[in-house]
Amino acid sequence: MNASSGTALRSYPVLLAGVPAAGQGWVHWPRSSAVLLDTYETVALKARLDHDRAGPADHDDPRLVGRVARSTGEQALAALAAAREAQPTWARVPLDHRLDFVRAFHRLLRERAEELMSVLVAEGNPLQVSRWALSAALNLTHPDSVAYARAAMVWEGGHAGRLVRLVRKPDGVVCLDPARNAPMLTALSGVPTLAAGNALVVNAPPTVPLSTAYLFHELVAPLLADHGAPPGTLSVLCAPARPMLRTWLASPHCDDIFFFGGSAQGAELTRSCLEHGKKPIMELAGNDALVVWRDADLDGAVEAALERYLGSGQLCLAPKFALAHPAVADDFTERLHRKVTALRVGLPDDPEVVLTPVIKRNQCKEVLDDAVARGAELLCGGDLVDVHGRPSPRGPFVRPALLRVRGLERAATMNAVTEETFFPLMCVVVPEAAASPAAASDDALLDAVLAFVNANRYGLRNSLWARDPHVVHRFTDEVTNGGVLKVNDSHIGTLPVLPIVGGTGLSGGVFGEANVSFLRTTRLQGISLATGTGEPFDHLAAAGMPRESGPVVAAPSTRIPLPGQSGTS
Q: Where would I find the Aldehyde dehydrogenase domain in this sequence (predicted)?
């Protein structure tokens, strides 16, 4: 590809049907640390370069990391047409060979892990956030994840002398719009989408395009070509989201729209997708609960709650509020408070830093003021600071905030608890203590807590810290809200096979569920193949009922080979 290595400028043209193409100008990306240390001059440099007003020295400025070409409307249409033409050829490549592409990607990701993290840090992700994103990428493409996908995409067995197959077939052309807060990780959903037999058009967000362009230009595209994908299978564009979405909706060559964004935008887009005959795959907002029971490992629970502040809380799957049992609420809150006040701002390459500049700083103050007005106690944080931690009304950082509110009913009135908050703010909710310490009272409290979790309008993931098997069973059995449930574990931690994203309610829309991209971008098809005996179909016999009266005898279930196949799998 057209990217330089080392510290030289990374330069990514439009990738149109697998071929580098000139765009309409460039989006330049300066190193995020330079923006934080010398904001005005660095932003001015970017503006001169982006608007073609730069001098000769500007192009060699060491603050620059890379540039990504802006695509045109004509290129968006051409990418869709090329994808439609290439997809049937790619889908005919055997599934196992397409899955080998994912396995090869996983190995390449491990080999180039340090390079990927350097791109993420340059883009503005703290080192700890970059490590988490890398772990999620590795688990998404882990061999065990691929093995699960292989088993889920094809099943076959024999019934009534016929081969019955359940096969997932690709939807066709999938258009992917990554999240602005985590572009590389969300764009990675395109890798299993491709392996499922789809063609893919990706729109790298112009506001933060570098890691997405790196991922597809340097890792995905070469591997696709090596595994026999025709050039039109992949295109990578870079244009504003709204006009691109309109193009996808209007095109007969787009089958699925895979969208990451806010719940309101997702609901609007879902309606538009259905009106235009497109399949909506929505990955939207999150407002996760973390439940801390009376017998919880408090040290572990505090560390999980502290994940709220990773990336300054601008991760959709971070815990947003904690429900702490009254018996341990004060101890839990005090431990968490000590940890929160120790967090500090700084440059993203500092291994101790987890905080990033906050986009919705004004909204953070509004949410805090609303919570305090409704009876919450502000324990710390909420003020604006600069990169050195000094108070500043124009500072890009928000000092980590911690709220405490007593009572579920009171908490249910606060936006800090009921809505997604995209800033470094955790609210500890202490349910009303029961009048009696009897076990029955704890059951009633658990009823109230589980009901509160299920009443949440969002449903990305929820977690529990408890040792009592009864409590764990009730949580995992009765919490229907959320695509993922975690117990006594990192809230944001990822594992092979376990879905990373996907959820219910405002987190995934009406079609929301835990998201396995192999499955979400395919459709189930049933196939029955008779052996050619020429006998008429006996409906009752096929259901295990003999022709004559008598006891029901189950039909034998054996694997019958397709023509040209052996009888063994």
A: 63-508
- Integer Cα distance of 392 and 381 in angstroms: 13
Provide the token pair at 13: 């043209």
Angle at the Cα of 404 (from 312 to 345), degrees rounded to 5?
A: 25
In this structure, what are the phi and psi dihedrals at residue 413, rounded to the nearest 5 degrees?
-95, -5
Confidence band of 534 (pLDDT split at 50, 70, 90): low
Q: How far apart are CA 406 and CA 421, in angstroms?
A: 19
The predicted-structure confidence for 441-463, as pLDDT tens digits, reads as follows 789 999 999 999 999 999 999 99
d(CA 407, CA 514): 31
Asked if residue 39 lies in contact with residue 73, where contact means CB atoms within 8 angstroms, the answer is no
For the whole model, what pTM was predicted?
Answer: 0.92
Task: Name residues whose C-beta falls within 8 Å of residue 200's C-beta, 6 or more positions apart in sequence.
Answer: 83, 173, 174, 175, 176, 190, 193, 194, 233, 234, 235
Alpha-carbon distance 44 to 26, whole Å? 15
Closest CA to 357 of 317, 311, 318, 326: 311
Nearest to 232 by CA among 81, 19, 14, 17: 17
DSSP at 258 = E
How far is the C-alpha of 363 from the C-alpha of 1, rounded, in Å?
A: 41
Residue 173 phi/psi, 5-degree rounding, is: -105, 120
Rounded to whole angstroms, the Cα distance separating 80 from 202 reads 10
Triad 2, 142, 89: Cα angle to 5°: 60
Report the alpha-carbon distance of residue 540 to residue 527 in Å, rounded: 19
Is the model's pLDDT at 307 over the cut of 70? Answer: yes
How far apart are the C-alpha atoms of 137 and 525, rounded to whole Å?
Answer: 29
CB atoms closer than 10 angstroms to residue 9: 16
Q: Parallel, antiparallel, or unpaired for β 154-159 and 26-30?
A: unpaired
387-418 pLDDT, tens digit each: 999 999 999 999 999 999 999 999 999 999 99
| Angle 274-276-278 from CA coordinates, rounded to 5° | 65
Percent of the chain as helix, strand, coil, to the nearest 5: 40, 20, 40
Q: Check whether 567 has a pLDDT greater than 90.
A: no
- Cα R_g (the chain), whole angstroms: 26
Strand partners, 502: 514
Phi, psi of 186, rounded to the nearest 5 degrees: -70, -35
CA pseudo-torsion sign 44, 48, 49, 50: positive
Q: Which amino acid is at 135?
A: S
